[in-house]
Write a structure and sequence with these properties.
Elements: E1 2-9, H1 11-17, H2 26-31, H3 39-47, H4 55-65, H5 69-72, E2 73-82
Antiparallel strand pairs: 1-2
Length: about 110
């Protein structure tokens, strides 16, 4: 079975809950916690789900927004499980067919 996972990024929503509506407002709050990011980097962090995120940045965001990583990151299933088989659409197992191996007759 193959299960393709994704995630929802809720940073903008959590910011709004704390009356933080401008991405640039996060820059000094992160800097207070030792995280130095440019305004452009913070903008991308807020507007796009990050592919990589340092644990230090995640912890700083959680501290700023008084939340947990689970509040920021929601795992989702992108594709439902797919069975890798010749008859993937069928839930029944394929019929088993026995094979007989015959050796050629040897002359003596």
């Amino acid at each position: 079975m193959i299960k393709k996972m994704g995630y929802e990024w809720h940073l903008r929503h959590k910011m709004a809950e704390h009356d933080i509506f401008h991405t640039s407002d996060l820059v000094p709050l992160l800097a207070e916690r030792g995280i130095t990011l440019s305004r452009e980097q913070v903008y991308r962090l807020v507007t796009q789900p990050p592919q990589r995120l340092s644990m230090d940045t995640l912890v700083a965001l959680c501290d700023i927004l008084d939340c947990t990583p689970n509040d920021l990151i929601e795992p989702t299933i992108v594709n439902q499980s797919v069975r890798k088989a010749a008859n993937a659409g069928s839930s029944d197992r394929p019929a088993v067919q026995r094979t007989t191996i015959r050796r050629p007759a040897t002359e003596q």
